[in-house]
UniProtKB/TrEMBL annotation:
EC number, UniProt record: 4.4.1.15
Record-stated family: Belongs to the ACC deaminase/D-cysteine desulfhydrase family.
UniProt entry keywords in alphabetical sequence: Lyase, Pyridoxal phosphate
One Pfam family in the UniProt entry: PALP
Record-annotated Tryptophan synthase beta chain-like PALP domain positions: 12-325
Cofactors, names only: pyridoxal 5'-phosphate
Primary enzyme class: lyase
Cross-referenced SUPFAM superfamilies: Tryptophan synthase beta subunit-like PLP-dependent enzymes
Protein name: D-cysteine desulfhydrase
Organism of origin: bioreactor metagenome
InterPro entries registered for this protein in UniProt: ACCD_DCysDesulf (IPR027278), TrpB-like_PALP (IPR001926), TrpB-like_PALP_sf (IPR036052)
Keyword Lyase: yes
Length: 352
């Protein structure tokens, strides 16, 4: 099927703004523009709604009544799956990594507000063991089978969505986003040299890779890793990109040389607080009043700034950054504690 013929639901608001960041542009010595996919409208917004446009349409076409997905405790994808389910009258359940926290913060509060069920896979008994991957896979299989059986026994039909909604169907959202962005840039008279986005489960990057070429949008796509990736992981992502291109009959193929993946900005690990990413996020917030989370967009901007500083992005370049949302994660327990230590205390207090 051609991407133009793909069935979709509008789980979020499309045609998100694309605008220049004047103060940051001046300080960095580049022309920096931002595509505001943090403003997709529902469930506090974010990029995953573009994927869910196509995933929810597929689920409904198959008669499914429940969306089941996976992620970390602060999954933005899970939050927006809950939002899409609430809007279209579906049930939502998410199976999350790790033991259940004693206190719900950030996205977990929002998940429950929107009616999602949240269950956990407690891996503490085998964390750090040599066969961790095999045991984690077995635990996921066990949890999935139990949850699906429970919902099916209640008369529901369950639609499984992998981490990040990263399937060929989900990637359609960012093929189309690339076309939308290209139209906006053309209208603005801007021909970018670089386009930056996060590289995590690879769904957004895959869709953008295919879409930018399919719609003839200029600019080199740079994916900034938010978790540690091996070369085998990147090659797996390349295979996913080519499957996506084939699934939507684009006539395109890609090689490893077509991918620009930056791996130096992960910090201590996925969604683990680090001062360099927070500093980049504070820099953006204090100059443009745009909030970048510390798991995804903060790392993207940190990488972008460092590459400008080191001359990898030449001064005067025109750069677009894709803002994929995620701000609720700032209010998770570990990130909030780190911000508290850096930003609070010592305020002047007046009394009568």
């Amino acid at each position: 099927m051609k991407i133009e013929d793909a069935k979709f639901f509008e789980t979020g608001m499309r045609s998100t703004p694309l605008h220049k960041l004047p103060r940051v542009s001046e300080e960095l010595g580049i022309a920096l523009y931002i595509k505001r996919d943090d403003l997709t409208g529902y469930g506090l917004g974010g990029n995953k709604l573009r994927k869910l446009d196509y995933l929810v349409a597929d689920a409904v076409s198959k008669g499914c009544t429940t969306l089941l997905t996976y992620g970390g405790p602060q999954t933005n994808h899970g939050r927006l799956t809950a939002a899409a389910a609430a809007r279209f009258g579906l049930k939502c359940v998410m199976i999350l990594n790790g033991p259940a926290p004693a206190v719900a913060t950030g996205n977990l509060i929002l998940d429950r507000m929107m009616g999602a069920e949240v269950v956990f896979m407690d891996d503490s008994a085998f964390a750090g063991t040599p066969d961790y991957a095999a045991k984690a896979a077995a635990l996921k299989e066990k949890a999935t089978a139990a949850v699906v059986a429970r919902y099916e026994a209640a008369g529901e039909k369950v639609y499984l969505i992998p981490v990040g909604g990263s399937t060929e169907i989900g990637a359609a959202g960012y093929i189309k986003c690339a076309g939308e962005m290209g139209g906006q840039l053309k209208e603005m008279g801007v021909s970018p040299d670089y386009i930056f986005c996060a590289y995590g489960s690879a769904g957004t990057y895959a869709g953008m890779t295919v879409g930018l070429k399919y719609y003839g949008v200029p600019g080199e796509l740079v994916g900034v890793c938010v978790s540690n990736k091996t070369e085998a992981d990147i090659l797996s992502g390349l295979d996913y990109i080519n499957r996506t291109a084939a699934a939507w009959e684009t006539g395109l193929t890609f090689t490893r040389a077509d991918l620009h993946i930056e791996q130096g900005y992960v910090g201590p690990g996925y969604n683990i607080p680090d001062p360099d990413t927070r500093a980049a996020s504070y820099f953006m917030a204090s100059r443009e009043a745009i909030l970048l989370d510390f798991c995804y967009t903060g790392k993207v901007f940190r990488g972008l700034m460092d590459m400008v500083k080191k001359g990898k992005i030449p001064k005067g370049s025109k750069v677009v950054m894709l803002h994929t949302g995620g701000a609720p994660g700032i209010f998770s327990d570990t990130h909030q504690a780190a911000c508290q230590a850096e930003l609070w205390g010592g305020a002047e207090v007046f009394t009568l």
